[in-house]
Specification:
There is one protein chain. The chain is of the alpha+beta class. It has one domain: Nuclear Transport Factor 2, Chain: A, CATH 3.10.450. 28% of the residues lie in helices and 36% in strands. It contains 4 helices and 7 strands; from the N terminus they run ααββαβββββα. Strands 1, 2, 3, 4, 5, 6 and 7 form a 7-stranded mixed β-sheet that branches. A hairpin with a 5-residue loop joins strand 6 and strand 7.
């Protein structure tokens, strides 16, 4: 890790700590006021208030008691004040009394603020599906799809999973 990368690793660490303590305010503190956020099923939130409310809702419901592990895979500086952070997440949560596991690949775009701090301006989360992950991860993707299928506005199994 380089000196330039250190603050970006710290953002990811703070996100993990906030998730694992179900602290939606600490989670959202890593984002710019007008940040854009696309969640794992493609829903969109804009700004601190929407991002915080959405995370408070999931911490109180579907992801109550969940644990997340975030690992920085790669950092790419587009400019000295703009970076793309590629992350791998492993999430453990409970549904219908059963422990579930999913893996995702969030991509964060961070920008350096005028005070020198970094904030996330865009966060795009993508579920790792059978075609996107190693063979051992297929059951995880199938499990989350099955668990959320009735709640998702698009019904059915993605073509790649048939």
């Amino acid at each position: 890790m380089t000196t330039e990368e250190r603050p970006l690793y710290e953002i990811v660490e703070k996100l993990g700590n906030a998730w694992n303590t179900a602290d939606s305010v600490a989670w959202t503190a890593q984002f710019a006021e007008d940040a854009d956020f696309i969640h794992i099923l493609g829903g969109y939130f804009n700004g601190h208030t929407a991002i915080e409310r959405a995370h408070r809702a999931i911490f109180d419901t579907i992801y109550k008691g969940s644990r997340i592990k975030l690992t920085v895979e790669k950092i790419r500086f587009v400019r000295p004040d703009v970076a793309i952070v590629f992350v791998i997440t492993e999430l453990t949560f409970f549904m219908d009394g059963q422990e579930k596991h999913i893996q995702a690949r969030p991509t964060l775009i961070a920008a350096k603020e005028s005070d020198g701090s970094w904030k996330i301006v865009t966060f795009q989360n993508t579920l790792v599906t059978p075609e996107g992950g190693p063979a051992r991860e297929n059951r995880q993707a199938e499990g989350i799809h099955a668990a959320l299928a009735d709640r998702h506005p698009i019904k059915g199994t993605p073509k790649a999973m048939e």
